[in-house]
Amino acid sequence: MFESETKPLNWTPDPDHGYTVTRRPDGGMHYTFTSASHRTLEHWREFALQHLLDSDRLTRNLYDLRQAKEIPPEAIQYALELNSDPAARNIRLATVVATPEVREVIQKIMALSIPGGVEIGIFTDIEEAEAWLDRSLTLLV
After folding, report:
1. Which CATH number fits domain 3-140: 3.40.50.10770, 3.40.30.10, 3.30.750.24, 3.60.15.10?
2. Confidence (pTM)
3. What letters, b where the CB count within 10 A reaches 16 and e where it falls short, cover 102-122?
4. Which of these ranges, 35-44, 48-57, 103-112, has the smallest mean pLDDT?
């Protein structure tokens, strides 16, 4: 049984959020960001924190950041906060980027994250990201 059958997404689409979320077939989440505004980041932080609260299994998430041209320092701060949550150790996170600048920010987040937390991969091709996510989750344990 997939996680999506037992765990609701609790997401209400709103164009002012600056991102969308769908449940992946494997139970993880697929985020697509169109904005990294303060309002977007605040909403994303609260949404992500809520999902970490009841995280009880290994999860695969995909962050599509190809439409993001820059990632502000606030996003780095929030990502590091979320990555330091003990539940983050249950997450494999593929990020798909389109620019070297966004890649550098994700690399900075990876370097500053607590070892043993979320496993992050950076890709420019969504199919490569999906293939990486499809690897056995037992490798995380």
Report:
1. 3.30.750.24
2. 0.88
3. bbebbeebbeebeeebbbbbb
4. 48-57
